Structures are given as C-alpha cells and as structure tokens.
Inverse folding.
C-alpha cells in the first residue's frame, strides 16, 4: 500500500537526501493550514462527539450516548438512505449529461478556439454563487412559475403541479444544475487526450460509431468519470444547504441533521453524526480511488 | 471538410439545451429584477423599473449588504493571494519525492472531499473552546483555504505534469542557482496558469458559503447575507442583488480570462524568433 501511494504521488522523481527538508519547507504553508483548519477540526469533532450537552452548554465527558442515540434512532437510517438516494440519482444524471456534453465538445468540435470557448461557457457558472443559482429556480418552478404556466397554456395540465418546487424533484434538479460541471470538466480532460489514431484504428477494423464509443472511448474515459464521480458524490453527500433551500425544509439529509443540531446548540450530537458522515464519505472515496490514480490523470 | 454526421446535430441540440439549462434560470431572475414596484417573485412583469436596484442602496430595506460585499471582496483577495503563493510552493514541493509527501497529498484530497459542514463545525468548536472569537479574516480565512488550496494544488499538478524540465537544466548548466532558476525560469513559464489558480482562489472564496457559515462571526460575508435574505425577504430585491453579484462575478472572470489571453499573446509574439532570422 504505502509503496503504491508514494509511487502514485511522485511517479518519476527519485528520492534524494535533502529532498525532505526543502520539500517540507515548500509545503509548510499548505501543511500548516491543513493541520489547523482540517485535521485539528476533525480531531476536535471526534473528541466532542463523546462529550455531553445540556440545553445551553456542552461539557467534556467520555460517553457513548451520542452514538447510542444516533444508531438507536430510526430517523438516522432514513436520513442516511435519503442521502444515498440523492447522491445516486444526482450521479446518474450528471454522468449521463456530463458525458454527452464532454463527448460533443471533445469529438465533434473541430476548431480549437471554438472548443475552448464552449468549454468556458460550461465552466463559467462554477465561478458564480451557488445560492443565487438556487434562488434562480424559484420563478421557474413555483406554483405560478414559468413551468406551470407553460404546461397550463399548452393544455397539458389543468392544475399547477405542486411537486415542482419544494420536493425531491427540485432538490435533485438543483444538484444536477450545480454539479454537472464537475463531470464535464474531468471527462472532457481525459477525452481530449485520447489518441485519435485509436479511433481511426477502430473504424478501419469495421467498428460502428456506437461500437467505438462503447469499446474504445468509454473505457479510456473511465479515469475522468471516476474523478467526476468523486466530486459529485462527495458534494451531494456533504450538502446541507441545497436540500434545505430547494425542499423548503421539507426533506432531510445527513448534512441537515448536523446543521439542525448545530442550530439547537447540540454540538456533541452534531459531532457524532459528523463523524459517521465523514467515515461514510471516506469509505465511498476509498472505494472509488481504487479505480483511478488522480495525480496521473491531471 | 468532412460532412457532419447526423449525430453531430443531435448532440449540438443537446448541448444547446444544456447551456439553456445552465443559464436560463440566471437570465430569468435577471429579467425579473427589473420588475415594477408592484411586481412579485414570478412572471408576469408588472411594469419595468429600477425600483429593486434602488432598494439595494437603502440600508433599511436589505440590511448591511454593502458591508458584506466589502468584506467578501477583501476576503476574496486575501484568499486569492494565499492560494496562489501556497499552491505554487506546495506544487514545487510535490515535484520531488519527500518523506510523507504521499500522506500530505491524501490529506489535501480529504480537504477537498470532506463535507463542508465539518470544517464549519470543527473550526467553530476549536475557536469556542480556546475562547477565541470567530472572525471572517481569521477563522473564515483559514476555513476557506481548506477549499481553495486543494483546487490550486491540483492545477499545479496539471501544470508541472506538462512542464518541460530541460528549461531548468539549461538554466542550471549556465550556472543559475536554485532560486534563480525558479525566479527567472520556472515562475515566468507557469505564470499564465497562476492566473487560473488566482481565478479559482478569488471566486471560490467570494461565493463560499458552507465552510464560512460558522466561522465568519458576527460580520457576514455576502453569500451568508444573501442566504439570510432568502428566509425573510420575499420581494424581487433579492433578484436584483443576485443579478448584481452575478454580473460582478462575470466581470471578474472576464478580467482573469482577458489577462490570461493577453499574456498568451505576448508570449506568442515575443517568445521565439525561430525562423525569423536571415
């Protein structure tokens, strides 16, 4: 394992004495930030998850009440299930859409300036506010929104559909809207590096377009798909704001469970849920990383 | 030129729909922010006016959004500078194998995939237990870096994977010290990519919400202020604010892209005079 890891991180460079010191000096700012604002907070959460809480304060302790309550509650299992459901459905949609868009950009656009321009069109929303992008769905999906008005005008429905906004539908729609980009970029990145001679060889050997897609392009794009999957799955599993906003507080996922506890100042309980969520996410990532070497794919 | 296959038109239509899906809602609230004073959150438009934009400049209507904007701007610039400097340094470090580099890499990846609310909660708890006050420029700044630095680092990996080492060797052969090589050879070559890192640093900070939520303290950043508004403001003023911040983001992105483009052109013009001699 450890050999595989260092191999993955520095594939060609050989170890030399003196590397350690300069390496750590150069990596010091990153390391310090990660120590203070990532590892220490995680450690703190783990510690606090064993603490006790009164209605107004928390006190140091070592008890398993928070975990016992968490695993003893039927709500926990329902909410974790809902979280996996959101992650899976969002993953399926973002993959299908992201793959198609990336395929179009990589293989059907012949001029490079246009390719770059269209790629930027896809990525620019990533650099704007997620909250504003969520708010933008309200006039579209609301009871008197554009979608309902249009459907009524076309005579497809008589009554406005109630499930467009503040439902699982709107939550997943927002997820797909926000995160498809995270599929498009890595998939596109691996697709443009596919050797075009391979496609020609497939065609020369009599493969149809579809066969080339399934047997040549798809397998070669797998690393990009994996990286996109890691992004989408972790973003959706860790989310607490999209679910709250797009469901009008009517749906729950694990992130909301944590943020509700925080709102009630029940930090130990929030911490215990956070520990379980973190472990879940890390296990999922651990499985996905088996299939891809991130450093090599950049 | 080869004739376009039928699938091209199908995919082009799909792509157009995707772009519409990406931008449609933003354009919709852009239009609705010009609602007349009696207008509501959805169509129809009841007149056209700048009423809701005017509201933004009146403190009592929307709270302290300009203060929040200033804080987000300053924080964005701080995070941007730190992200560029720290990412380049770490990028240089990762070019050689050093003891523990594998662990550090996986910690950085963890920073990227960890549910944001854990950062918020953990940093908040630490500051609380140490008796420190959370503030956007301290705890908020550090928390945002856990989000921007991994992106910066990944970009640096991509940059150095494509970096031609013979330039460095040439510099060394001519007697340049390690620092001179970095300062006069490596940094100028990777400069355009640093614009990309800066763009990520600034925009990700400027729009960051989840990791800043419990770490910004009593003075909100703009996304926190906007989120607060969603629960108690039910007029198009929120669309006006959304339109303005989105336009601001577009302007920032435009500036960065323009800078990258200008730099690439200058390089193309001055880079090499091969073939232009006698």
């Amino acid at each position: 394992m450890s050999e595989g890891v260092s191999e993955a991180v520095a594939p060609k460079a050989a170890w030399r004495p003196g590397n350690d010191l300069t390496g750590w000096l150069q990596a010091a700012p990153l390391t310090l930030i990660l120590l203070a604002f990532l590892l220490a907070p995680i450690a703190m959460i783990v510690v606090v998850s064993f603490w006790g809480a009164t209605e107004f304060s928390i006190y140091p302790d070592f008890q398993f009440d928070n975990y016992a309550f968490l695993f003893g509650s039927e709500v926990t299992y329902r909410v974790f299930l809902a979280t996996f459901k959101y992650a899976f459905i969002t993953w399926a949609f973002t993959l299908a859409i992201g793959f198609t868009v990336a395929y179009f950009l990589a293989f059907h656009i012949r001029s490079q300036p246009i390719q770059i321009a269209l790629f930027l069109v896809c990525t620019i929303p990533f650099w704007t506010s997620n909250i504003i992008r969520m708010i933008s769905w309200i006039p579209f999906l609301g009871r008197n929104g554009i979608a309902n008005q249009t459907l009524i005008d076309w005579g497809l429905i008589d009554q406005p559909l109630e499930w467009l906004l503040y439902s699982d539908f709107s939550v997943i729609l927002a997820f797909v809207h926000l995160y498809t980009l995270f599929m498009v970029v890595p998939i596109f990145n691996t697709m443009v590096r596919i050797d075009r001679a391979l496609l020609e060889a497939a065609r020369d050997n009599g493969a149809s377009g579809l066969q080339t897609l399934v047997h040549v392009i798809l397998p070669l794009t797998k690393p990009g798909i994996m990286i996109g999957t890691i992004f989408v799955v972790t973003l959706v599993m860790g989310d607490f704001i999209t679910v709250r906003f797009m469901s009008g507080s009517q749906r729950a996922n694990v992130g909301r469970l944590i943020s509700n506890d925080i709102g009630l100042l029940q930090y130990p309980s929030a911490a215990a849920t956070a520990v379980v969520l973190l472990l879940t996410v890390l296990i999922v990532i651990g499985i996905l990383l088996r299939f891809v070497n991130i450093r090599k794919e950049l | 030129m080869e004739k376009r296959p039928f699938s091209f038109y199908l995919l082009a239509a799909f792509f157009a729909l995707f772009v519409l899906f990406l931008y449609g809602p933003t354009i919709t609230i852009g239009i609705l922010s010009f609602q007349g004073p009696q207008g509501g959150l959805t169509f129809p438009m009841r007149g056209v006016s700048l009423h809701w934009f005017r509201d933004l400049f009146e403190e009592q209507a929307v709270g302290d959004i300009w203060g929040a904007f200033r804080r987000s701007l300053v924080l964005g610039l701080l995070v941007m500078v730190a992200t560029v400097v720290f990412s380049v340094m770490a990028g240089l470090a990762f070019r050689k194998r050093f003891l523990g580099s594998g662990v550090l890499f996986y910690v950085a990846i963890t920073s990227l995939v960890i549910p944001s609310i854990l950062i918020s909660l953990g940093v908040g708890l630490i500051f609380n237990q140490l008796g420190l006050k959370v503030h956007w420029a301290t705890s908020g700044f550090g928390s945002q870096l856990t989000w921007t630095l991994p992106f910066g680092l990944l970009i640096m990996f991509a940059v150095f994977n494509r970096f031609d080492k013979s330039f460095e060797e040439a510099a060394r052969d001519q007697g340049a010290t390690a620092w001179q090589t970095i300062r006069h050879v490596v940094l100028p070559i990777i400069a355009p990519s640093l614009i990309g890192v800066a763009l990520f640093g600034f925009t990700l900070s400027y729009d960051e919400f989840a990791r800043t939520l419990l770490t910004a303290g009593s003075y909100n950043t703009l996304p926190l202020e906007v989120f607060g508004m969603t629960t108690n403001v039910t007029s198009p003023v929120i669309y006006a604010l959304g339109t303005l911040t989105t336009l601001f983001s577009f302007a920032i992105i435009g500036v960065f892209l323009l800078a990258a483009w200008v730099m690439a052109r200058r390089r193309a013009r001055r880079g090499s005079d091969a073939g232009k001699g006698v």
Remarks:
- The two ends of chain A are 22 Å apart (CA to CA).
